[in-house]
Amino acid sequence: MRTTLIYILFLLANGMVYAQQEHRDISGTVADANNNKPLPGVSISIQGITGEIIADESGKFNIRVPKGHRVLTFSLVGYQSRDLVPGTDGFLSVSLQRSNRQLDEVVVVGYGTQKRKDLVGAVTKINPADTRHIPAGSFDAQLQGKAPGVQITTNTGVPGEAVNVRLRGATSINADNTPLYVVDGVFINSSSLQTISTGGKSTSPIADINPNDIATIEILKDAEATALYGSRGANGVVLVTTKRGSYNQKPKITFDISGGSAWAPPLWELTTGPEHATLVNEWWINTGVDNPSLNRNYANRPFRPKSEVINGVAGRGLPEEQQTYDRLSEVFRTATLQRYDISVAGGNQGTRYYIGGGYDKQESILKPISFDRASLKINLDQKIGSRAQVGVSNTVTRSYRNQGRAGDGPAGGLLQAALHTPTYLSPYNDEGVPVGRAGFDNVSLLIDHYDVNSRSLRYIGNLYAELEILPKLVLRSSWGLDYNNYDESEYWNNLLIAGSPSGLATSSITQNSNWVNEQTLSYRRSFGSKHAFGAIVGNTLQQSVYDRTYLEGRGFANNSFTQIASASAVSGTQSWSKNSLASFFGKVDYSFNDRYLVNFSLRADGSSKFGDNHKWGYFPSAGIAWRIIEEPLVQRINAISDLKLRASYGITGNQNGIGDFAAQGLWSGAVSYEGAAGISPQQLANQDLKWERTSQFNIGLDLGLFNDRLSFEFNFYNKYTRDGLLQLALPSTTGFDTYWSNAAEISNKGFELGIRSVNIVAKEFRWTTGISLAQNINKIEKLATPLQYGSRNLILQQEGSPLYSYWLYKQLYVDPETGKAVYEDVNKDNAITAADRQVIGSVWPKLFGGISNDFSFRNFDLGIFFSFQYGNDTYNHNRFFGEGGGARDAARVIFANNLKRWQQPGDKTDVPRSDGVNVNNYLDGGSRWLEDGSFLRLRSLSLGYTIPKKIVSRIRFENIRLYCLASNLFLLTSYSGPDPESSANSSQNQPGIDLGTPPQPRSVQFGINVTL
Amino acid sequence: MKKLVNSISFFLFAAALFSCNKFLDVQPKNSVSDEVTIFNKASSEQALRGVYNALASSNYYGTGFQSIGYLSGDNVQWTGSQSQVQEFINHDVSAENSTIAGAWSAIYQVINRANNVIAKVPSVVDPQLTDAFRNQLIGEAYFIRALAYFDLVRTWGGVPLITSPTTSPKENSGIARSTADATYSQVISDLENADALLPETTNRYRATRKTVYALKARYYLYRGQWAEAEQFASLVINDSASYRLVGPYNSFFAADARGTVESVFEIFYNGTTEVNGHRNQWQPQTNGGTRQWAPSPALLALLSDPVTAGNRTSLVGKDNQGRWYGNLYYRNPASDPSWVIRVAELYLIRAEARAQLQNTAGALEDLNRIRYRSGLLPASENTSDLLLLAIEQERRLEFAFEPHRWFDLVRTNRAITVLGFTDVNKLLLPIPSQQILVDKALVQNPGY
C-alpha cells in the first residue's frame, strides 16, 4: 500500500542534470483547511519541473527539491491549489481550502486542456456518471437537461434510435445541425447509416459508444471554444474523453451490474367497438342529410342488424353488438433491462492502461424491438523517456438491434397495426384466419414474424505520439479512425403485408470509414510572474468514404426459405461516396497578471465538396476575459468568491450533411429502360457553392458567492448564419426540382444560465442543487421561397418565421349552431383554401433545462433530476387520424376524444359534427391537433447506499455501492398523447409530429458497483 | 537528437502539406460530370432510354399522373387516410396536392431529358451512328415530348413551353404559360417532326411512326378534328397484322401478359430496376398492397351487370375479408406495364369520330368490336347522340383503371353533368402551389 513515499518524479533530461547538483529535502503534511483532517492524495509538484508526487494517506509527503527551484504547487481535485515556498526548516504544514466551484478543475478544450479559471469560451463539463444508467441507447440521449443551451429531444421510446441534439438552436436547413462529436480526438460519424425503412426513424451511431467508458464530456458552445474545430464547429462540439488509467496506480477492478424493468406510461384512449359503430352511423346519416343524392339514411346505416341485407350487403350488426379488441396491450410489454460493465485500470511509472468491457441489453416496451451492445475498450499510454509519450485509444463495439417500424407507414407499422386499427374489427376473418385490418398488418402475425435487424460493428481508435522537442515546445501527431460496418437485413414472409404475396428479403451492408490525421505543435510559457503565453499550430487531414451494397430478393417458394439466395427475383444496387477535408489552424493565448486573458485563433479548411474557387474557408475567432475577482476592489467584498466576464466573437463553418458532390453538375447512369442502361441529367452544377458561415458573439459572466457555495454561469449569445446551404427550389420547368446553393440566412440568439448551489453541508448531510436554464430564439432571416416539409406539409420554412414552423389551418371554434369547424379565413375570400394556412405555434421551447437535487446522508445518496421544456407545441398526428368523426369508418381507429363531438344545436365543443360532406371538419393540417408540448419530467431518481469502508475492507474490497435508479416515473404535461417528445421522423426538417411512435418508458433498475 | 526531431517534424509537416488540391479533388463513381454526356452512338441511345425512364417514373406513367385520370372519374373510391386522394374524387383539388406537384415536375423532367436528346444527338460525331438511327433517336424524343405536352395541356391547360435543355439554374425558368392552343400546337408540331424522323416499324415499348399515328388520332379527337382522328385511327387499325384486339378482355393484362398485339404503346417495367408501384395502391394487404384505391360501388354495380360488364369482371377481385379490389396492376415483383395506347382506344376514337361525323353505322361497328371482345351483346344505338353516350359508357368500363375517364368527360364537356359538381373552374387542375411560389411568371388557373 501507499505507506511510504511514492516518487513519480521524472527527472530525466533536465532533471538528471540537477540530480547531480545540490538539493534539499522538504517534508510536511497537508490538511483540509476546514476541519484540519489530513488530506491524502494531494499532488505536489515543483514549479519548473515535470512530474509530481502524491501525499500519502495521512497527508504526509517528502520531496527532494533541486537547487534553483523553490515553489511547490499543492493541488487536489475539489480544493483550491496553492503555491508555497518552504521555509528554512524544510518543513511545510499546508492547509487547502475546499473549492466547490472547482476553479482549478481541468476542462478539455480543443487540442488541449485548460483550468476552468482560464477559460475564455463557453464550455460545459458534464460528468456522465450521473446519467449513464438512464435507459437510452446513446449517451447523448441521457444528457437531457444537464447542460444549459443543449436541447435534447428524445423523439421515441426505442432504445438506440437517434435523438435530436441541438446546441444553441439550429443553423441550417439542408446542412447538418447536429454537433460535432469528437471521441478521444477522433471526429466520429454521427449520421445514421440505416438504410432500411423503420417508418422515418433512424438508428443513432452514437449508441455504439458505451456510456460507462466515458470519463468526461465537454460541450463547447461559443465561437471561441469551437474555433479550432473551425469548419466543423458551427453546431458546437461534444468532446468525449474516455477513461484512462493513472500512473503508479495499483490495478483497480470495477464491476457494475444492473438490471430492471421498463413499462409504458398511460397510452391512448380509444373508443370501444360500440362507440366506434355509433360514430360511424352518425357520420353516415349526417352525410345523407347534407347531401341527399348520396342516399344515406338511418335505414341503410352501416351498423344495422346483420339480417338487413341491402343491395346485397348485409348489416354489420347493431353498435351494441360490436366487440372491442385491445391490440395495444398485445404490442406493449414490460421490458427487461440489463447491463454489465467491468473494467481494470492502473499503471506503473511509465505505463498506464484502462481495459473495459461492457454488455448492455435493452428491450423496447414495444415488441419486438430491442437493442444490445457489447463493447471493448483498451486505452494505453506509454512514456518514453521524459520527453516523449505514445498512446492508443481503442473502442470496438457490436450493436445488435431487433428493429420494427415505429413511426410512419402502413406495411409493418407496429402502432399502425396496434393503435390505428379500429377496435371493433376482429383480428380474425370469418374463417378464423388472422387478418390485418384497415390496411395494416395483423398484430399477432406481425410480432411473431417480425425479422428486421441490424448489426453495427464499429471501431473507433486513435494512435498518438507526443514529443517535447524543446522545453515547453510539444509536437503531437495522431492518426484516428472511425470505421463502421453496418449490416442490415429484413425478411418479410407472406403473412405480412410487406412480404405478400411471396416473401421479401433484403440485405444491406454499409461501410463507412472516417480517418483523421493531425499534427500540432504547442508552446506554453510564463514570463515572470505576470505574463503567461501559449500558442498552438496544427493541421488536420480527414477523409470519409461511404460504400453500400444492397441486395433484395422477392418470390420465395414458401416461408421456410428466408435467404435471398432462394428468391426467384433478385436485384441489387451499390453506392459510393467520398469527401476530403484539409485544415490548418493556429491559436495564441496570453494572460496578464492572471487577470486579463486574450485568445485569438484562425482556421483554414479546404473541402472537396465545394466548387473549385470556393473550396477554402477561413474561420477566425477572438476572445477576451477579465477575471474581476482579482481586482483589489472586488477582493475586498467577502461575499464574492469568483467573478469573471468573458466575451468572444468568431466565425465557424458548416459543410456536413450536404452531398459529397453537391457543387458538381452530374449525369446519372441509374436510369434504365427495358432493362438496358440509360443516362440522364441528375444535378445542376453550382461552381459557386461555398461554405456556410456562422458568426457568433458570446458574452458570459461567471459569479461565485459565499466561498463558491452559490455559483452562476451566464451566457448570452447571438449567432447569425450566412450563405446557408440549401437545396434551393427551382421551377420544375427546368427539369430539376432543386439545386445546391448558398441561399438562406438564419439567426439564433438566446441565453444560458447554470446555477449550482451547495445548500447544506453538515457533518453527515449534504444537499446540492443544480439548475440549467436556457432560451433560444430562432428565425429564418432570409429565404427566397418557402419550403414545405413533413406529412401533409405540416411544416413550413419561411422567411421571418422560426425553422420548422407548423403551417396549419387555424380552427377558431366549432359553430354551436351547425357543428361545423370554423377556420380563420386569412385572405378573406370566404373559402378555406391553401392560402388560409398560417404559421401557428412553435416546435421551439421558450425555456428548457433541468433541475437536479442531490442529497447525501451518511452512506446514502439520493439524486432527483427533473428536465423540462416550456412553451413548445407538438402536432398530435395520431389524433388527427383518430378524430375523423367516423368518416374513416373501417379504415381507422376513433379516439375517445371524438365522443365529445358536436351533436345538436347549442353544443359547445371543439370537436365538430361527424360528417362526410364538409370534409373541413377533419381537415389535413387543422390546428385542433396542435397541442402544448411543454413538460416537466422526472428524468431520473436514484438512491444509493455505499457499504461502510470497515465492512468492505474486511472482505478486501475497496468500495461497494448498491443503487436503485428509476426514470420517467413522473411526467407533468397537458399533451394528450403519451409523450410530448414523440416525433415520427428523425429527419431534421420535420420534428414535432407525433405519429405511430412509442413513448419513452418508465423504468426501475437495481444495481451494484464493486471496486476491488 | 535535435536533428532527428527536426527531420521528423519536417517530414510530418511536409506530409501534411502535400498537394492539397489533389487531396480535395474527389469525383463521384455513380455519376459523371455533365460536361461530357451525349457524345457517341452508345451515349445517344442511353440518353434516350433516360427519357423513357422519366416517362415511366412513379409520378408520371408509373402511378401519379395516371391516378389523376381515373381517381378524378367515378370508378374509384378511397379507403386510405390521405385526403389528397379524396380531393380528386371530390373534384376539389387543392393547389398543394402532392400528386399534382409530383406529376407536374415529373413531366417537365421528361421534357428536359427529351430536349437534351433533341439538342445534342444531331451534332454527335460517330461513324457508327447512321443517319437513320440518329433520326430514329431524335424522333422518339420528339414523340415523348409531344406526349408530355399533351398530358400537361389536358390536365392544366396552357403551360410554359420549354424546348431547349437546361444547363444552368437561370435557364428555362420565369417563362410565362402559353395558351392551350399554343401548347397543342407544340404537341402536333413535335408529332409531325417525329412522324418525319421515325421508321414505320412495330415496337410496343418504344415509339415508331405507327405510335405517332395513334397519338395523332387521340390528339385530333381532343381537338374535335374528327376526320383526322378517324384517318389516323384507321392507319393503326388497318395494320391488323401488328395491331388487333385480343380476347377475352383480360388477355392484354392477365397471366403476366405484356406487349400483346392489342398494345400500341405501353411502358415496360422489369420489376427490379424499373418498378411500377401502381400495384401497391390497388392490391389488398394479402398481396402486399395497401388497397387505398378500390373500385367504387358504382363501378362494381356496372361490373356485376351482365349488360355492361361481360368478361371485364376480371378487372376486380375479392380479398380474404370479402372486400373488392382492382386487379389490373397485380404483378409481383411490380412489373405491370403501364398501358398508354391500346388498339381498343383507337376503335373507340374512331367510333366517336364517326359518330360525330354522323357515320352511325361505322361508329356502331367499331363500338361493337369492343363489346364483342368483352363478351357483350352488340349495342344498337342508332343516333350519334345516343352513340356518343354509349361510347362514353364503354370507355368508362374499357379503361376503368386507365387514365381516361376524367379527361374524356372534360373534353366532351360532360364532367359537371356526370360527376355532379358545380364549379367549372375545377375542370382544369391547379398549378402546384410550390411552383407558383418559386416561379413568379406562372399564373394560377382561375378558382384556385
UniProtKB/TrEMBL annotation, chain A:
**Keyword Signal on entry:** yes
Q: Which Pfam families match?
A: CarbopepD_reg_2 (PF13715), Plug (PF07715), TonB_dep_Rec_b-barrel (PF00593)
What Gene3D superfamilies does this protein's entry cite?
Answer: Carboxypeptidase-like, regulatory domain, TonB-dependent receptor, beta-barrel domain, TonB-dependent receptor, plug domain
Q: Which GO terms describe its cellular component?
A: cell outer membrane
UniProt keyword Lipoprotein present: no
Q: Which UniProt keywords apply?
A: Cell outer membrane, Collagen, Membrane, Signal, TonB box, Transmembrane, Transmembrane beta strand, Transport
Q: Where is the TonB-dependent receptor plug domain?
A: 116-237
Describe its membrane topology. Answer: Multi-pass membrane protein
User: InterPro entries under this entry?
Assistant: Beta-barrel_TonB (IPR000531), Beta-barrel_TonB_sf (IPR036942), CarboxyPept-like_regulatory (IPR008969), Plug_dom (IPR012910), Plug_dom_sf (IPR037066), TonB-dep_OMP_SusC/RagA (IPR023996), TonB-dep_OMP_SusC/RagA_CS (IPR023997), TonB-dep_rcpt-like (IPR039426)
Residue spans of biased composition, Polar residues class:
980-991
The principal location of this protein is membrane
Every TonB-dependent receptor-like beta-barrel domain range: 407-954
Signal peptide stretch: 1-19
Location relative to the cell? Cell outer membrane
Origin: domain of life:
Bacteria
Where are the annotated segments for Disordered?
980-1002
Q: Which family does it belong to?
A: Belongs to the TonB-dependent receptor family.
Q: What is this protein called?
A: Collagen-binding protein
Q: Which organism is it from?
A: Flavihumibacter solisilvae
Taxon lineage: Bacteria, Pseudomonadati, Bacteroidota, Chitinophagia, Chitinophagales
